[in-house]
């Protein structure tokens, strides 16, 4: 069994598949941006000092920057 980790814990260059969300209060915008269970992602950049995280959503090759606090609510399995 693979361990789930929140996106804020992944390092630059890490690839993962989104599994679930820590709570159901995440805005619908995350689904609209491509953060749906089963979506493959790559961490492209992590800004210093708790800054935003740039994530590549592989199915449409989009780059999305989200707050570290939001990334902490998204669970994924590292691949």
UniProtKB/TrEMBL annotation:
SUPFAM superfamilies (alphabetical): C-terminal domain of transcriptional repressors
Pfam families named in the record: FeoA (PF04023)
Recorded coiled-coil stretches: none
Keywords in alphabetical order: Iron
SMART domains: FeoA
Keyword Iron: yes
Ferrous iron transporter FeoA-like domain mapped to chain residues: 5-78
InterPro entries listed in its UniProt record: Fe-transptr_FeoA-like, FeoA, FeoA_core_dom, Transcriptional_repressor_C
PANTHER family: FE(2+) TRANSPORT PROTEIN A, FERROUS IRON TRANSPORTER FEOA DOMAIN-CONTAINING PROTEIN
Protein known as: Ferrous iron transport protein A
Species per Swiss-Prot/TrEMBL record: Sphingobacterium litopenaei
């Amino acid at each position: 069994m693979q361990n789930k980790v929140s996106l804020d814990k992944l390092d630059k260059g890490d690839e993962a598949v989104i599994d679930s969300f820590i709570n159901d209060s995440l805005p619908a915008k995350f689904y609209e941006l491509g953060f749906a269970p089963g979506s493959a992602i790559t961490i492209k950049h992590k800004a210093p000092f708790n800054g935003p995280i740039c994530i590549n959503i592989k199915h449409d090759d989009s780059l999305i920057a989200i707050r570290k606090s939001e990334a902490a609510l998204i669970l994924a399995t590292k691949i």
